[in-house]
Amino acid sequence: MRAAGGVSGPPVPSNGAGELLQLLRDGRPRTRAELAKLTGLARSTVGQRVDALLATGLLGPVGEAASTGGRPPVRFAFNPQARVVVGADIGATHGHVALTDLLGRPLCEIAEPITITDGPAPVLDWLATTIERLLTQSGRDRTDLVGIGIGLPGPVEHSTGRPMQPPIMPGWDRYDVPHHLATALQLDTGPSAGSATGPVPVLVDNDVNIMALGEHAAAHPHVQHLLFVKVATGIGAGIISGGRLHRGAVGAAGDLGHVAAPGHAQVLCRCGNTGCLEAVAGGPAITASLHAHGITAISNEDIVQLVRSGSIPTAHAVRQAGRTIGEVLATCVSLLNPSVIVIGGSLAGAGESLIAGVREVVYGRSLPLATSDLQIVPATTGRQAGVIGAATMVTQHVLTADRIDHAIATQSMSHAASATA
Ligand SMILES: [Zn+2]
């Protein structure tokens, strides 16, 4: 199966219904007359397209519009409950899976400890079982599922869904993640699958890109240029440019963890290089510096708890890490000119200490024009960023105009075939 790219099967002519749905995805109910006025199309054409969308369930009637007399006209709106999506956030030691609606809003969730180093087969079998459990829990049928989105803690070739030389995932290099899940769940991935949006794609990306998509969709949907920075044991960024995720030539865009932090050439990094940003400002670097002050912190959660309980040396160390991250981000601001930088990841819970350090350096180092409109804010989606982002990746993929048109065409062809059988 193909994880991404063009619609499979023979090309079908656009029937225009998919384009009409894009207009309605803002959630506002509209009458046929309002849609005709908005699109400049004939009433009869709008009527046909509305009927085609009603048949898929993606559009539904809601209430009645005010009428000047006679039978009141019906309003129609996008129905996000019509289908469900799976968003999965797989970390080194945790698995978090949510069943969401078509707006990426979680309907039910399961979070359990997993071990990524067990290798792909046990972890993906756990994921398949968890998806079955969520479908049963929510009472949704397998045919309601339009796609599965997965975030993994390493580099991923998004077009094939295969991890590429992931440093903390032994056994996963180039593993065909979509194929494993499609087989385990017996997904109908062909062009004539029963679902109203066609085949059920399995899309995979790295965890930071997924979190950037989730935070963008949930908190900054109208922002065109956004940089999401994950600060945890490692440090990485997801880049939204022109409203879309920017992955780069081989999916490595935003890998800030191993960019050189100025003035730290002596610090050895796990990648074998020296002076890398995450070796200087990541969670383990902060716990090591606290150790020198006689403060015991083992995990990132310990650091966050210490800051919250008022430990001044910890707040100081976190703020210093923020400054170091800010040095690298000042360069990113000059290069990308984002209007929002979101700071997320498990150390973002340390709140103002981290962000204050980032702001101090970014605003101080960047040219006024680049920062005149720049906000540096904490992430709002917290632990849900990954699952919301993974589901958003799927809805952006399956609800495009050409995929909706293709699904409507194949559905009517299969209806015609079963009628003549
Ligand atoms: Zn490094």
UniProtKB/TrEMBL annotation:
Domain of life: Bacteria
Record-level Gene Ontology MF annotations: kinase activity
Endpoints of the signal sequence: none
Pfam assignment, any one: ROK
Entry keyword NADP: no
Keywords (A to Z) from UniProt: Kinase, Transferase
Keyword Glycoprotein: no
InterPro entries in UniProt: ArsR-like_HTH, ATPase_NBD, ROK, ROK_cs, WH-like_DNA-bd_sf, WH_DNA-bd_sf
Similarity comment text for this entry: Belongs to the ROK (NagC/XylR) family.
UniProt cross-references to PANTHER family, sorted A to Z: GLUCOKINASE, ROK (REPRESSOR, ORF, KINASE) FAMILY
Annotated protein name in UniProt: Putative NBD/HSP70 family sugar kinase
Classification of source organism: Bacteria, Bacillati, Actinomycetota, Actinomycetes, Micrococcales
